[in-house]
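User: I'll paste a sequence; please echo it back and then give the predicted structure.

Assistant: Echoing your sequence first, then the prediction.
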Amino acid sequence: MLKCSKDFHIYMKQQQIPFIIALIPLIVLIILQAFIISSFGSSALDGASQVGLLVTSAVAVLISVCFYRFDYSGFEEAISKSISNVSTAIVMLMLIGSLSGTWMISGIVPYLINEGLHIISPIIFLPTTCILCALISIVTGSSWTTVATIGIALIGVGRANGFDDGWTAGAIISGAYFGDKMSPLSDTTVLASSTVGTPLFEHIKYMTKTTVPTVVVTILIYAVASLLISGREESDINAYVNGINSTFNISHWLLIVPVLTGLMIYKKIPAIPVMFFATLLGVATSLILQRDILIQIGEGDIFKGTMTSVFGATNISTGNEELDNLVSTGGIAGVMNTIWLIICAMVFGGVMTAGGFLRVIMEKIVSAAKKTWSLVASTAASGIILNAITCDQYLAVILTGSLFKDKYKAMGHKPRLLSRSIEDGTTVTSVLVPWSTCGMTQATVLGVATITYLPYCFFNYLSPIATILLSIRIKGKSHET
């Protein structure tokens, strides 16, 4: 990550591109995405969005090489480095695909759905979902892990209770990103504080002034929505429960796997080994409790069925069409479109950095900050723009900190104001960008398009608003609130 920051400063020495010209690739991307979403809808990630990113990248390269005499080899090098930066995320995403497949076939997710339908009342479903995901994310320090495990089960509970996927996914993501943001185990929290030199727990404590009011408002919105949204009839919910129990061998022993997974995360074992072993546990559970389903998937061959549950598409007949759609899985194959999209997004990010487009846009934003509130607003805006351009929240966090660190110091503010502004404007908004690694991953894992859940992620887009509003009261270092 620090290497990426160094590369950014090297690019800052290159030839200056006018601000208006620097905006052209972004404008092209926005126009293309608008047409793509209008034409393809939820199928945009199947290839159209990838083409849009590559076309936009080509536009940026042509501008740089043909009109500003940039060396083309620099773009190839930048693209290579950009893609290598997300290699871990790609492996993680493949493991999430295998985990979601094996946990579904093994009966773990169906068990959690079954228990959720009995425990969680539809009247408080959305706020309960948000709070539950927040607690799990605080303990694990990972929004991705929270969404990939309990999040998938909650989508099923929401559907069974008649809630639109957008509402349920919004509550899951709001809670998961709150917990991720406030957890001392979170890599983004550690990165944001260390990048600008704020002690970790001082950073977390200072964030509570914006984060706690925001999450309270978010939970209240979900509470009202749960009361107003009409749920399913009891008979419809019973159809889900009966379908699960007649298809899967449901047992409380299934809870052992998510508990062991949670313990591994709590012990700070790296995410990739955790996901790998969690997948193996899912496979073992399938072989013990769901042999009939594996034989069905493998057309009589249990080994074939087991392997397919890890890497391929599976379809299970439960007697309930909605439940059939819910328990069908894609395994590793199901995330390949997302991986393709991530690679194309990294091409775009590398080109925008190598061509100096990113530098020009960011310099304009930084120079516009004259007062504290405009400084914080510029920080939040930069975070959102960097999420859209670099397509990676880690790069966005590092670059935002690098761009604004001296500006905050010059205006007499402690580093904690910058680190909080980065978290409020960068970390939590990454999941709202459809072509970013976070947006693509959560949409794929939950099976809900980014554009569908975006309006309901209240915590994620209220956070930058809250940090800007609170900054109006801040006058200087000695007056920070």
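Confidence is low (pLDDT under 50) at residues 1-13. The first helix runs from residue 2 to 11.
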